[in-house]
Amino acid sequence: MPVPDRFASEEWPVSFGEMERELGGVGTKIVFEDHRVRVWVLELEPGERSPVHRHEVDHLLIQVRGDRIAVEPEPDTLGPYRERFEAAVIPGMVTHVPRGGVETAVNTGSAPYYEIIVELKS
Fold first, then answer.
1. What is the CATH number of the domain that holds 77?
2. How many domains does the chain have?
């Protein structure tokens, strides 16, 4: 499935073994940034996938709405999630996630998914 244009604003070429790939941004768009944090929103329609992306810094993930979300880690991920997993969305839940993850988010539910990602620069 092609990556929607709205994810194309943040791409970095990365080499993985013999394969080169383009990494997208960690969310749909940046809504705030200063010297301490960068705030993204991520919106995924049912069945939609985010681009493969890398989390360069620790971040807070805040679930706002949706019903099911999955994370598909890449083989070279250095984050805490090494295996694909799927979970129910809990609106208002805040999770601290250490940097290093290389992954794709997938809306596996029947409702639109929306989250806020707060990257912690320091």
1. 2.60.120.10
2. 1
